[in-house]
Structure formats: structure tokens, C-alpha cells
Amino acid sequence: MKNIFALSLMLLTLSGCSSSLVKSFVQTPQLKDVRLNSFSANDKQASFDADIYNPNLFDIPVTTLDGDIKLNQVPVGHIAATNPSNTLKSQETQTITIPIELDTTDFMSIAKSALFQGGIKYQFIGTVGTSYGPIPVIKEGELSTKELMTSFF
Predict the structure, then answer these.
(1) Ranges assigned E (strand) in 12-151
(2) How far apart are CA 53 and CA 103, in angstroms?
């Protein structure tokens, strides 16, 4: 029995706990839900809340946030943050807020067309990067004319 234990220990040591070996024992965190948290045309900002579950018995640091937002299929914002100082707690669902700075160059024409269409479609596609791999975040929805009007005033 001691020989099996010693052999196992030696194999783990020789493998140097390579990242591929470690990653094979790590379960990928799961995206549970994404919600539009806030949208402000005046402040040129939007934010999404992403609920992410960490199924592992240990915490996982979030290393990057990356993504793009489109309004009526027109790109209006991008986020690229490294070291956002969030940690996914073990076996818990946590909400990570993803803030986005809006580029308002085309925004006014999109907002005007939304008044005639009764709303505006939004799409967020991005990733939450962890030390064990990226978690895709995709959310599509629609802002009503009323929601758009309150975001301006």
C-alpha cells in the first residue's frame, strides 16, 4: 500500500501539477442568468448582472471581463477589463455586474428610430474570464420606449 501511495505521489510530482492536469479536475463555472441592470443615455453607461455558479470546492478568481453591446444591431459599447477583483466563491451563485461605457456616436439616430418602432433591441455578447477558462455571457432583449424615455430623464 505504501508503494502505491509513493508511486502516486511521485507521478503527481513529476507531472508538476501541470495546468492541463489541474484543469481536468476543475469544473467550469456555469452562467445561470443575465439581466440588464441599468441603462442611462445621459451617463453613457449600461450594466448587466451575470449570475455565475461555481460548482468547485474552492474559490476561482475572475481574471477578465470582455464584451460588446449592440443596439438594433449597431455596436455602441465595449468592455475589456483585466483583474476586475471578483472571486467566484466555492459552490455558490454570485452576481457579477458588468459595466459598459456606451459610445453615443450612433446612439441618437438609434433612439429616434426606437420611438417610431416602440422599442429598441439590445444584445450583449461577452465572456467572464477565469483562471480555468472563459464563461460565455450572451443576453438579448428589448427596451421599451418608456424605458428609453426614463433613461434620458
Answers:
(1) 30-40, 45-53, 60-71, 74-88, 93-102, 119-130, 133-144
(2) 31
Closest listed residue to residue 53, CA positions, set 94, 24, 14, 25: 94
Mean per-residue pLDDT, 123-136: 84
Q: Could you tell me if 39 and 147 are in contact, meaning their C-beta atoms sit under 8 angstroms apart?
A: yes
d(CA 56, CA 22): 12
Cβ(47)–Cβ(37) below 8 Å: yes
Instruction: Pick the range with the lowest mean pLDDT from 12-16, 45-49, 89-93, 99-103.
Output: 12-16
Q: Which CATH superfamily is domain 27-152 in?
A: Immunoglobulins (2.60.40.10)
Q: In the chain, what are the domain boundaries?
A: 27-152
SS3 annotation, 76-106: EEEEEEEEEEEEECCCCEEEEEEEEEECCCC
Backbone angles phi, psi at 125, to 5 degrees: -130, 125
User: pLDDT tens-digit profile of 96-105?
Assistant: 888 877 776 6
Classify strands 74-88 and 60-71 as parallel, antiparallel or unpaired: antiparallel
